[in-house]
Each structure stands twice: as structure tokens, then as C-alpha cells.
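Many introductory courses stop at the sequence. We go one step further.
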Amino acid sequence: MYKTIVWKNSVQKDCKKIPQEDLKFIFKKIKLAFSGESIEGKQLKGKFARCLSFRIGKYRVIYSIIGNGILITRIAHRKEVYKN
């Protein structure tokens, strides 16, 4: 279980682009995904090499594990998440 989930400031900007109904579902899934012992997601490559990603419907959550916490870097539609 990870003690803290920290959001990068840029995630706020990402969340403004997502419909409110989808956002509620995403936050619920994030809380559920990081409440257990194991981590969902896959290791990324390229410029996101130190990050992991997992899918929530048509959205992706990119995050890093820092100590006993999680740093969420991006939340975006799957077609846009890996772009700058």
C-alpha cells in the first residue's frame, strides 16, 4: 500500500479537458489501483522511461513510484497522453 499520492501541477490542466463524469470514474479507479500491495500498469520506454502507465477506459494515467508514494504525472486521452 502506498501512503501518499501526489499530483504534479500539470495534472490539473489535464483534468480540465476531461468530462466531469469520466473524471470521477478515473479518480475512483486511481484510488483503488494504488490501495493494494501490487501495482497496475506497464513500464514505459523512450522519454517516459522512468514512468509507468495504466489504462482507465480510453484514458491513461502516467505515474512514478517515489519511495513509498506515487507521483502522478499525466492523465489524458490515450491518443494525446504521450505527446508533449
